[in-house]
Design goal:
This protein is mostly helical and 159 residues long. Helix content is 66%, strand content 0%.
Length: 159
C-alpha cells in the first residue's frame, strides 16, 4: 500500500499540486548536480528528461510526456556499462517519474548519491547539500522524505 501522503489530492491522497511540483523540483536539482560526473557526452535523453521535469514542475507539460521521458532516461541506464552513467540515468529517470508518482522523488536524490559515491566523491557533502535543499521545502515534505532517504540509503549502499 502506497503512502497516501504521496498520492495527489485529486486521486484521494493529501499531496497538493504545489507540493508535488516542489518535490519534482527538489529531485531535479539533485539529478542535475550529478550530470557533471559523466565524463563523456551526456546522452540527450537525460537532458530532455530533466527539461521535461522542469516543464512539469511549472505545469507546462502533461504527466504522460514525463512518463515517456522517464522511460528514455532508464533506457540510458540499461544501455550503459559505466556505473556512474547508470546511477545518473537512474537518478534522472526517477526524478522525471515523480510527475507520475511522487514517491519517485527520493529515488532521484538517492541515485544521485550513488553516482557521487561511484565517482569517488564525497557522499556526505552531497547529502548535506541535498538535505539543505530539502529543508527549503514545506515541513510536511521534509517529514515525508527524510525517513525514506534514511531507510532506502542502505539498499543503494549510500548510507
Amino acid at each position: 500500500m502506497r503512502d497516501k501522503r504521496f498520492i495527489a489530492v485529486h486521486r484521494g491522497g493529501s499531496l497538493t499540486r504545489d507540493n508535488h511540483n516542489k518535490l519534482i523540483g527538489w529531485a531535479e536539482r539533485c539529478s542535475e548536480r550529478v550530470l557533471s560526473l559523466i565524463e563523456e557526452d551526456i546522452d540527450n535523453r537525460l537532458l530532455y528528461a530533466l527539461h521535461v521535469a522542469k516543464e512539469w514542475e511549472t505545469e507546462n507539460v502533461k504527466t504522460g510526456k514525463a512518463m515517456i521521458a522517464s522511460q528514455g532516461a532508464h533506457a540510458v541506464a540499461r544501455e550503459s556499462s559505466d556505473p556512474v552513467i547508470i546511477a545518473v540515468a537512474r537518478s534522472v529517470g526517477h526524478t522525471v517519474a515523480t510527475a507520475h508518482m511522487a514517491d519517485h522523488a527520493p529515488g532521484g536524490a538517492l541515485y544521485a548519491l550513488k553516482a557521487v559515491k561511484l565517482a569517488g566523491k564525497s557522499i556526505e557533502q552531497e547529502r548535506k547539500w541535498q538535505t539543505g535543499q530539502l529543508q527549503k521545502l514545506p515541513s510536511v515534505l521534509v517529514e515525508l522524505i527524510m525517513p525514506i532517504l534514511k531507510q532506502k540509503a542502505k539498499s543503494l549502499k549510500v548510507e
